[in-house]
Amino acid sequence: MNLALSSSSLTLAVKSFIFFALGIASYELINHYISPTAPFTSQCQLTSTPCQVNEASLSLEKDLVNPMVSNTLSVNWDAIPKDIDRLQLSLEGHEMMMGTYRLILTRNKNQQFSGDLLLPVCTEDAMTWFGTVAPIDADVPIDPLHISVRMTK
Fold it and tell me: What does the pLDDT look like over 13-40, one tens digit per residue?
């Protein structure tokens, strides 16, 4: 009877160890794929003061970006071929996973791209969004502009 009890205790200990080891390995594997390998650095934090990135100038209508409050983003990018009429803004939250926010910026008669930025509500008082502005349907590869937006309630 002691031998049977000892054997089941050993089996339970081995199973517990394997379960624990698989849990740790799974956590590390998931953390590796979710966490960025290098911190994102923005060349431009958007405000109403234009910032220069790769021959482009970007600015917001208002300095403060609030959730669910429209704020027009303007981009002057003379190096973009005249046949490209749209740019795509893609943003991802830094402090919280909020999915990817996308916005199409269209070219107006002044050859400036613009669109109304309307970021979603989050539970934090402030949040940083990192992302890119890139041409849509470009015939040749064009490096995206790396930007960030600081949103506050």
Answer: 666 666 555 566 555 555 544 544 444 5
Q: pLDDT averaged over the chain?
A: 83
- Rounded (to 5) percent helix, strand, coil in the chain: 20, 35, 40
pTM, two decimal places: 0.71
Tell me, what amino acid is at 29?
A: L
Question: Domain-by-domain residue ranges, the chain?
Answer: 1-35, 51-152
Class level of CATH domain 51-152: mainly beta
Cβ neighbours of residue 90 closer than 8 Å, sequence gap 6 or more = 100, 101, 102, 131, 132, 134
- Measured in whole angstroms, the distance separating CA 19 from the mean position of its chain's CA atoms is 34
